[in-house]
Write the structure tokens for this entry.
Amino acid sequence: MLRWFVTGAGGQLATAFAKTLEGEVFLSQEAALDIRDADAIHAAVHSFAPDIVLHTAAYTDVDGAEADPALAEAVNVEGTRNVIKAVRGTHTTVVYFSTDYVFDGAKGSPYVESDRTHPLGVYARTKLAGEEEVLSWVRGIVVRTAWLYSDTGKNFVKTILGAAQKAKAGEHLTVVDDQIGSPTYAGHLAAAVDEALRQGVAPGLYHMAGSGYCSWCELAREVVQLAGIDIEVVPTTTAELGRPAPRPAFSALTSERPIPRLPHWAAGVAEAVDRLIPLG
């Protein structure tokens, strides 16, 4: 049985892995094990001796990174470097989860692994730098994904569902419609990564995201329709929203490599909403 070491326990992807993995699993919560502490992460990894490290811990506040680039750098780059340092001299595979935001969105069609990166903001630049740290390891795997959501943690699908449920008669939701991406259900991603690793996927770079693509506005409309909530979702633009960090206009992902494909993004939304409605 495999031994799995998962950073970022409590996050939606780590939670999905905890439900998916078979074998002995060590879930590293940030409160107990800060990846910025090189000595602590080294001791924890060597004590557990994992076959695979699933490095899900990250600083993911896209706008917050613009205000505090040092923190984003410390977690996404230095923290990742500490993980890689901890496994040197072992046979451990490290899987790092990156983002569609490493692209600038100018291509106008889904990005594949060989496309040139061009991050627009601090968050994206630090995630790309983290990729480089992992790919320096002979057993390093980078999985780029996009627009992650689930029935746990903080994410767009839960936010929209909660807002729709609280809305009063005549109110509407305003959502950006000029950003296009590939919404990804955490449960589908965890299952696909698990399958790829058990099949012996080679070290390197992979895109794994929900099949197809849509705008944030289309995603919101899918959520409220599946939830059976009668509320209008009104489109707006990125410029009108006025967020601090730049975002790619079209950052959908697909893969040119032989890896497990994820279901269509709408199938994941349906599963997430089905899980969330009884809790609502």
